[in-house]
Specification:
The chain is of the alpha+beta class. The chain has two domains: 32 residues; 62 residues, no CATH class. It is built from three helices and five strands, in the order ββαββααβ. The strands form two sheets. The protein has a three-stranded antiparallel β-sheet with strand order 3-4-5, covered by helices on one side. It is elongated, with a radius of gyration of 17 Å.
Length: 97
Amino acid sequence: MTVDGPYTCKYCGRTFKSLQSLKSHLQNCPKRSLPREFSKGKVTFICYMNPRRKVVNAVNSLLRKPDFNEQQLLGVVRYLQENGEVHRILMPEINKN
C-alpha cells in the first residue's frame, strides 16, 4: 500500500508533493528543533537543533577530552550555528559548582 502526496510536516504544517521532499525538509525544520545541553567547566549552552546523532556524538566526544575548555566549546557552538545545525542558542548558564 502506498500513500500519494501531498505530504505535510507535522511540526510546521508545510505541504510537499513528494515524500522525499518532506524527508529533506525535516532535516532542517526549525519547529522540529529539540534542546541539547552541552556543558564544560562552569559553562552550559542549550542549543535548539534537529536530532543529528553524528553531530551530537562529535560534540560530546570533544567534551570528554580533558584539554577541551569553555572557550573551545563556544567556538564549536558558534560553528554549528553558522552552518545551520543550531537554530537557537540560549545564553550560556554559569554553573555554580
